[in-house]
């Protein structure tokens, strides 16, 4: 509450985390800058929402910005290209996008389109993802890298796809998979393109520590690698082994972990080459992080490096190691997912209502009130900046005593309601005092517990699953009124009936805060909030808690003239759709409801003329959006 900032929007640290893409506009609205047209003016996000609203597309909505996706694909590919040129590296870079990070057709289609000129490929971690990859026309030299557990069907499809010109690499995860590959080769007589997944022993820091090192569930240890080499050699397939893969886990915070892992990977590459494997591709997996908080530090939600630094660290480490071993520089492959798609999507929703933990006025107390209530009211008389902590303590004490009396039946509902009002009014006076103070020690922290609850039109479980599951932080800001000082602090609650459905960690200019500075809700217009960088993982990890389905999704292109084009609209799930996901047939539901309506008419409980009305209400619901409309 004590930030001394020049402009109201500076509270949110948008300049730090916004990457120059999300910017505050003079009129107090959030603007979107087009990185591909740096001279173009930023476009107001609320004005985009108003335009879409007129077209009948409403919040809650996921907004995908095609220009941001294109920008990130260019960014990673040119970063590697430049690093390779700078270091005099002899190999090339062939990135692949891991489909699991965002499998949506609109996203993958665009990734493939924007990646053509970079020979950018796809990574498939399962059969369905391979089926997706094979439905795309990739550049001639682009790769399809197949990771994950594979059965005969998977291996057969991957092997045969080479006949269509796909460079599909089957990455062996275990000696057993080598057996499957050999059996399929003997059956089909078609040679596969093979890789091996090695388990590096270096551990990374951050949230994904467990997915690296000895106990990681993926990849082969040295003993298993030797077994695979022997099997392939015996089957006459060792010459098909072209790629070595390893993956550290996601969101690697520290670039030195990237260097160490690349160095260790090179040791395996050297040894496998000495064993006679004609390796040409070194695949270092994903892990390139996103600086969600803008801190530029090696913390869970930040990273201490740029994409350029990541690329040059990889290129330099590998080039140096290969020179030492006297091995030609391999083609470099990475499988960055998060860094490619996270920034391109944002979730926007409206605030439906607020629960305030203060009150503008307090009732007069009198002799008929319980003495604890008059004591509580009397705190107002000695409340000042010097005694704010004392007043807070006293108010809390009296309120708790009064609650105890209420529970035991000594005071009635109306007395208790008066007490709550007196307490909440004290709260507003304390909040106002603290807002103007420099050193407020503990009270400031305690006041966080008295933050408002803003009830928002979205489902955390459907749209921000990682916020719930792994404490992922995403920047969240009001999309308007940023030219006015926020006058409230709030936590956000979603519309599921789950007490876990709330957001209570926010990225602000001066660090992570348990509440978000917001404005009093305007009476006459919607108040929108935006959650940024949600393009990675959130869409498919989301679930149907309380049967809130997919939100509306729009894909936009930012035009150079400051306008936007609506490239695609995907309507969110209807109630009928989510019912069918949980084994209900909507037609059966309608029939069952109609039967009850007719029964009620027969019994005289409902007028026949009301049948149309009540059936209409049921049908409207079943055909409608799952969110608040
Ligand atoms: C998940 C995954 C990736 C993507 O990781 P990011 O951190 O999103 O870049 C890449 N490769 C493999 C094998 C994965 O499992």
What does the secondary structure layout of this molecule look like, with pairings?
Blueprint: H1 14-17, E1 22-24, E2 30-32, E3 43-44, H2 45-54, E4 61-65, H3 66-87, E5 96-98, H4 105-115, E6 121-124, H5 127-133, E7 143-146, H6 152-160, E8 167-172, H7 175-188, E9 193-197, H8 222-234, E10 241-245, H9 255-274, E11 281-283, H10 307-325, E12 331-333, H11 338-341, E13 345-355, H12 371-378, H13 388-407, H14 413-435, H15 441-447, E14 452-456, H16 460-463, H17 465-469, E15 476-478, E16 488-493, E17 502-503, E18 506-508, E19 511-513, E20 516-518, E21 528-532, H18 538-541, E22 552-558, E23 564-570, H19 575-581, H20 586-602, H21 611-623
Parallel strand pairs: 4-22, 5-6, 6-7, 7-8, 8-9, 9-10, 10-11, 11-12, 14-16
Antiparallel strand pairs: 1-2, 2-3, 4-13, 13-14, 13-21, 15-21, 16-17, 16-20, 18-19, 22-23
């Amino acid at each position: 509450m004590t930030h001394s900032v020049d402009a109201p929007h500076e509270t949110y640290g948008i300049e730090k985390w916004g990457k120059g893409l999300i910017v505050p506009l003079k009129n107090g609205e959030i603007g979107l800058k087009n990185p591909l047209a740096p001279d173009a003016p930023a476009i107001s996000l609320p004005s985009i929402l108003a335009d879409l609203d007129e077209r009948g597309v409403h919040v809650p909505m996921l907004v995908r910005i095609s220009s941001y996706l294109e920008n990130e694909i260019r960014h990673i590919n040119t970063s590697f290209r430049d690093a390779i040129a700078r270091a005099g590296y002899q190999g090339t870079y062939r990135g692949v996008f891991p489909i699991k990070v965002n499998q949506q057709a609109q996203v993958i289609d665009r990734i493939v389109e924007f990646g053509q000129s970079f020979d950018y490929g796809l990574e498939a971690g399962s059969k369905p993802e391979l089926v997706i990859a094979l439905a795309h026309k990739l550049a001639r030299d682009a790769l399809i890298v197949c990771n994950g557990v594979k059965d005969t069907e998977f291996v057969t499809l991957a092997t045969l796809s080479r006949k269509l010109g796909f460079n599909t690499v089957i990455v062996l995860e275990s000696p057993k998979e080598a057996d499957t590959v050999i059996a399929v080769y003997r059956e089909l007589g078609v040679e596969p393109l093979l890789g091996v997944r090695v388990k590096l022993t270096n551990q990374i820091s951050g949230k994904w520590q467990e997915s690296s090192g000895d106990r990681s569930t993926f990849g082969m240890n040295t003993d298993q690698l030797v077994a695979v080499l022997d099997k392939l050699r015996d089957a006459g397939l060792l010459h098909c082994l072209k790629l070595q893969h390893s993956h550290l886990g996601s969101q690697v915070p520290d670039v030195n972990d990237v260097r160490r892992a690349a160095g260790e990977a090179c040791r395996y590459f050297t040894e496998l080459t000495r064993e006679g494997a004609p390796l040409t591709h070194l695949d270092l997996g994903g892990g390139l992080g996103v600086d969600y908080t803008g801190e530029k530090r090696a913390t869970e939600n930040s990273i201490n490096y740029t994409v350029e630094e990541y690329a040059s660290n990889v290129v330099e480490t590998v080039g140096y190691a290969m020179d030492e071993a006297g091995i030609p520089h391999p083609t470099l492959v990475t499988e960055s997912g998060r860094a490619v798609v996270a920034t391109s999507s944002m979730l926007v929703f409206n605030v439906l209502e607020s629960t305030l933990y203060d009150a503008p006025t307090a009732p007069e107390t009198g002799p008929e009130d319980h003495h604890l209530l008059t004591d509580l009211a009397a705190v107002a008389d000695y409340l000042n900046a010097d005694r704010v902590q004392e007043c807070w303590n006293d108010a809390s004490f009296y309120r708790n005593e009064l609650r105890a009396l209420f529970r035991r039946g000594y005071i009635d509902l109306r007395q208790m309601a008066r007490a709550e009002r007196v307490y909440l009014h004290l709260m507003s006076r304390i909040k106002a005092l603290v807002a103007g103070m420099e050193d407020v020690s503990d009270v400031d922290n305690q006041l966080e517990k008295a933050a408002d609850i803003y009830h928002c039109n979205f489902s955390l479980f459907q749209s921000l699953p990682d916020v719930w599951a792994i404490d992922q932080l995403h920047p969240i800001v009001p999309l308007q009124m940023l030219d006015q000082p926020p006058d409230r602090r709030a936590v956000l609650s979603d519309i599921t009936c789950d007490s876990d459905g709330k957001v209570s960690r926010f990225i602000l200019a001066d660090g992570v805060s348990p509440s978000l500075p917001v404005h009093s809700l305007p009476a006459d217009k919607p108040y929108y909030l935006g959650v940024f960088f949600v393009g990675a993982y959130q869409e498919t990890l989301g679930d149907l808690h309380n049967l809130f389905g997919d939100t509306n999704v729009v894909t936009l292109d930012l035009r150079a003239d400051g306008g936007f084009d609506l490239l695609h609209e995907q309507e969110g799930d209807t109630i009928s759709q989510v019912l069918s996901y949980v084994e209900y047939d909507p037609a059966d539901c309608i029939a069952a409801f109609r039967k009850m309506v007719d029964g009620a008419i027969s019994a005289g409980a409902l007028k026949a003329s009301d049948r149309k009305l009540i059936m209409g209400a049921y049908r409207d619901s079943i055909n409608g959006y799952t969110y608040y409309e």
